[in-house]
Amino acid sequence: MGLLQRLFSSEYRRALTAEASGDFLAAARSYALCGESQKVCDMHLADARRHSDLDERINALRNALGFAENDGCVLVQRLLAEALRRDGQRRGEDTREGRESLMEAGELLAEGQSFEAAGECFIAAKKVEAAIDAYSRAGQLEKVEELLATQERHTTRDRELHHHFSDYQLYMGGGRRDQALSELRACVEIAPRKGDYRRLLTDLEGQLLREDRVELHCDGRRLFVLGGDDLLVGRDGDCKLVVRGPSVSRRHARILFDKDNQRFQVADAGSRNGTLLDGLTIAGKLALPARARIGLGDRTWLAAEHLAGETLRLEVEGTSRDMGQRAIYIPLGRVLLQHGDDRFPPALLVFKGGRPWIETAGDDKLELELNGKRVLGAIQAIVGDEISINGRRILVVS
Fold it and tell me: Tens of pLDDT along 10-30?
């Protein structure tokens, strides 16, 4: 707009009046109608300078950049880049929004030929390739070499992390849970962001079964399978077989297996109401006959039956919250589940190092599935598993 046009233009006079009164946005609108791009840019810059709020300052600088010309464009780019860098630091380099602000700041600085500063923003935004390019254009060869070496280390780490996590998934799906645990621990060790891997590790550690004990459900039946050198019975949660009743002590009785004579024995564990064998109070250890009733005081009993091999079947009777509960005690850690309850499929359960493993005992006609997927070999059972043998489901409860 020429000088005379400016003098006689009401819009231009309106712009001057708004600028003088500090209404920079109104002035910018009027200058825009007059085609005064640089003045519009100046008004948005003036508006940006008075904003203490970073978001409002960034918005004003973006408006200024849209009207900036020639050398003024470089100045506005630098001002906007600095505001975006501060915004990225405020939001945090580990957030998506923070990285986006830092990346945009780097791009603006690179456009303005400030390559070293651009490289610093790209590094903060975790854009290594962009940082390498910016430092190369700035002639910072040492930083380029350092970044390339770091990038190679990260590539190797990411490859190892992918390998360990893939093996974890493979072992989990195949029922090899201790091996899956080892792979997850390796992930936690090498991952730069460990949160998700730690959560998976904590979940798996909570699902693992130990101490030769597992609770299974099948066709509405509940069955405990118990191993170990001796079986402690009582109300206490630390007992391997928990039986709650009015005459049952916290630690009431012990059942043991005499390997030399291949027979089970029962002993009192210091109970308040005594332990009985077929109605007679016992002291010391007594051998169990093939069938017997073990009294936990005078109101709760365990019906015991010595099955083939080293297997003792137990069922809670009398006054007890656990009346009808069934269990199998396998001191040598191996049993066909049908020995405990014929509703269960012909699966073999084996304790190895306290962990329960379920397999088909080498019967090729039996199909073993874990959580809906076919599995070959044995399954290390964990809490929450659904194990199917020829379509008959076993739920691992605890």
Answer: 888 889 998 889 999 999 999
The predicted model scores a pTM of 0.71
Q: How far apart are CA 271 and CA 263, in angstroms?
A: 23
Looking at the DSSP assignment, which residues form a beta bridge with residue 57?
none
- 96-110, 300-314, 355-369, range with greatest mean pLDDT: 96-110
Sign, CA torsion 112/115/116/120: positive
Interior angle at CA 150, CA 113 and CA 161, nearest 5: 130
CA–CA gap between residue 18 and residue 291 (Å, rounded)? 104
173-185: b (≥16 Cβ within 10 Å) or e: ebbbbebbbebbe
Residues 325, 361 contacting (CB under 8 angstroms): no
Q: Which residue has the tokens 């500090």?
A: 22
Give me Rg for the CA atoms of the chain.
38
CA-nearest of 1, 290, 253, 101 to 16 is: 1
Q: What is the pLDDT of residues 79-134, one digit of tens each?
A: 999 999 999 999 998 899 999 999 999 999 999 999 999 999 999 999 999 999 99
φ, ψ for residue 117, nearest 5 deg:
-65, -35
DSSP state string for 294-338: EEETTSEEEEEEEETTTEEEEEEEES-TTTT-EEEE-TTSEEEGG
Closest to 64 in 3D by CA, of 54, 74, 296 = 74
